[in-house]
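Input.
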Amino acid sequence: MGNPVKYSMENYYSICRGKMKLEGNKIVLPILGALLAAVVGGAAWAAIVALTNYELGIVAWAVGGLAGFTVAKLANKQISAAHQVIAVIASLIGILLGKYFTVGYLYTESISGIFDSEVMTVFKENFSELFKAMDIVFIVLAVATAWQLPRKLANKATPAADTTQAAE
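Output.
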């Protein structure tokens, strides 16, 4: 029958550590990517406002899409509910940053305004004024997109993989 496999506590712990490391990488990279997407999306939204002097709510929706897409790509389309939650949180952070960057720019008429402590005070004091009914509509769309897009991209990728295996 051959040599039986010896399991020692050391082997067991090394197997568990390897699995935990692998699982951690499936979450850590999507978290970091989603946060980067949130910052980039928020900055892009503020840049559009600065260039056009008009706030386009559809850009908030795009921030949700960017967060969802980034999470799906960095999770190698192996999506769990945790990934979807990461995308939703990142989309909300991106929208919040977009609003904050916009206030910072408009208040000081400079990009460096986002680092001014007075801007943070103005932002906090006027927080409820920054989110009107139409903003809420686009935030809901962004959250829904951030939640659904990673799963849809994962499901879209799965049949293609099955087709490739069947052809072989």
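Confidence is low (pLDDT under 50) at residues 18-22, 161-168.
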